[in-house]
Amino acid sequence: MAGSRSLSERRETKRSHLAERWERLNGPHRIGGVDLARGLAVLGMFAAHLLWIEPLDFADSSTWVDIVNGRSSILFATLAGVSIGIVTGGRTPLTGHRLEVVRLRLVVRAGLLWLIGLLLIWSRVPVYVILPAYAILFLLALPFIVFGARALLLLAGTLAVVMPVIQVALDSLPLWSTPAGSDLSTLLGWHYPFTVWIAFVLAGLGVARAGILRARVQLWMLGAGALLAVIGYGLDAVTGAGDAAEAISYWGAVWTSRAHSSGVLEVIGTGGFALAVIGACLLLCRTVLTWVVLPLRAVGAMPLTAYVAQLVVWAIVATAVLGDAGDLRGFRDLEPFWPLALWTIAACTAWALLVGRGPLEWVVDRLARLMAPGRVGRVER
């Protein structure tokens, strides 16, 4: 009888454990649409890193995968703003001691992300690691977390138009061609210049303040984002300067939507694209399709783990097979995208349902809480 009770208790404990993990991924305190958008951003960066991609030509469907270039990382940055908005109060910014606790935790998270980014860079994997820039953007967002939605979106729009003009001058500084400038570029993640990309973070923070769970806000994000994308890419198609003019002309470098150019049309078009994708993901997760995309949501629930694991596996496999972690051409020729993407989806889904929080997310959160103790409580979304 005692043995029977013991077995029954163990089964009950196991059911309780699985229910808790299910609740963490699917409960009311998890925003499935944000996780889905993060999952798409992570896998989009996988594709940008690992696939041979031809320039986008809408008449040729084989080139459509080029949509991941530039857009995935900007989606990731916009989602950083959304996440900051959620943890700092949602629709109503935190105040007082609660705000100070969260602010200090964000500083700790930024420091840890920057260190992890440097470790990945030292692995010699030939990609522009986004984490150093991501960390700096976290810090730059801190003064703005007390702002409301209207002020944040207005500021984001202003910076989106003004900063690309200044960025061309910043990129032309002789500093970047020196050894010290090269090292500084690495430390700052300058491939994703925070001077321009702060606009994406503030836009994400702004929609979080507007109330990201409200259907009206989600529809507005989808519609306004799509309109901005049409304006940015449409103006480039009609009046864009082209590669030659971009290389020799100051205003040609400003007036472009080329991926990773930080041109004004890229910022408008791709920033709009990011907002539209987040809005579409939030609306989709209001439907039964949220269960269909659960594996992608699991990836988005642990984006740091998924991103870092991809680069670590890349470094190990490329070193073992090619003898050089920096051999981009050789590694792409191994056609690693689908194996890495599918294993990442499967591993994240299994981990989320059986274990819970992603391992790196757990470590970063624990260290942040240890270094910034205090109670914050639930926030209004």
Structure at a glance:
With 381 residues, the chain is an all-alpha fold.
Describe the structure.
- By secondary structure, this protein is mainly α.
- It has one domain.
- Helix content is 73%, strand content 0%.
- Helix 4 runs antiparallel to helix 5.
- It is globular and about 75 Å long.
- The mean pLDDT is 92.
Q: State the end-to-end CA separation.
A: 49 Å
Order of helices and strands: HHHHHHHHHHHHHHHHHH
For the sheet with most strands, the description reads:
none
What Rg is obtained from the alpha carbons, in whole angstroms? 21 Å
Fraction of residues in H or I helices: over 70%
- Sum up the overall morphology in one term: globular
Beta fraction: under 5%
Instruction: List unreliable stretches of 5+ residues.
Output: none
Whole-number count of domains: 1
- Overall mean pLDDT score? 92
Strand segment tally:
0
Individual helix count? 18
In terms of structural class, how would the helical and strand content be classed? mainly alpha
Assembly type of the shown chains?
Answer: single chain
Domain Heparan-alpha-glucosaminide N-acetyltransferase catalytic: 30-214
Keywords: Membrane, Transmembrane, Transmembrane helix
Transmembrane segments: 36-53, 73-94, 106-123, 129-147, 152-170, 190-212, 219-235, 273-294, 306-325, 337-356
Domain DUF418: 258-367
